[in-house]
Amino acid sequence: MHGLAALGYECVGVELDDVLAAEARAAGLDVRTLDMRDLDRVAGRFEGVLSMWASVGWFDDETNADVFRLIASKVASSGVLVLEIFNREFFETRQGSFQMREGIVETKHIEGDRLYVEYDRGGAFQWRLYEPDELATLTGLGLASVERSSERARMRVVLHASPASSGASAAAPITSDATVR
Question: Mind giving me the DSSP string for the chain?
Answer without folding.
Answer: -HHHHHTT----EEES-HHHHHHHHHTT--EEE--GGGGGGS-S-EEEEEE-TT-S--S-HHHHHHHHHHHHHTEEEEEEEEEEEE-HHHHHTS-EEEEEETTEEEEEEEETTEEEEEETTS-EEEEE---HHHHHHHH-PEEEEEEE-TT-SEEEEEEE--HHHHTS-S-------EE--
